[in-house]
Specification:
Order of helices and strands: EHEEEHEH
Largest sheet: 5 strands, mixed
Distance between the termini: 39 Å
Strand order of the largest sheet: 1-2-3-4-5
Number of strands: 5
Structural class: alpha+beta
Number of helices: 3
Length: 130
């Protein structure tokens, strides 16, 4: 299993993952420089991005997606590698807090298993684009 930085040529490979999970496709312009792909034998295991809120010390790990066709234990191993890589990059860039949001219990559990803490309240997340 290896980790690589997202390149524009990887975008179509990510489209397949979003489609397999029946998720909306993330526009290419929304994918930040700090996006990584975990692969094994040229197959994507998972991918995710690190976003920073302006020039603040607040970072988010978002856009995490895994390959539904990969065996669950390998996805779990890849997600752990991805989460820790993104967290380490955030810390190197001066993060004081690293957040994430997900409606998926399995992914939430991966964050909790990797030393993240659940917020005490339930948050309602909305987005708007035109």
């Amino acid at each position: 299993m290896n980790i690589k930085r997202f390149e524009e040529k990887d975008y179509n490979r990510l489209l397949n993952l979003w489609d397999n999970w029946n998720l909306p496709n993330t526009p290419k312009t929304w994918i930040p420089e700090d996006t990584f792909i975990i692969e094994n034998n040229d197959k994507i295991i998972c991918s995710g991005s690190l976003y920073q809120l302006g020039k603040t010390p607040m970072f988010w790990i978002e856009g995490v997606i895994s390959n539904k066709e990969i065996e669950k234990s390998m996805r779990k191993e890849g997600l752990k590698l991805l989460i820790n890589k993104l967290f380490d990059i955030a810390k190197e860039q001066g993060a004081e807090i690293v957040l994430s949001s997900t409606p998926r219990d399995g992914l939430k559990d991966m964050f909790l298993d990797n030393n993240f803490h659940e917020t005490p309240e339930k948050y309602f997340h909305v987005g708007r684009f035109e």
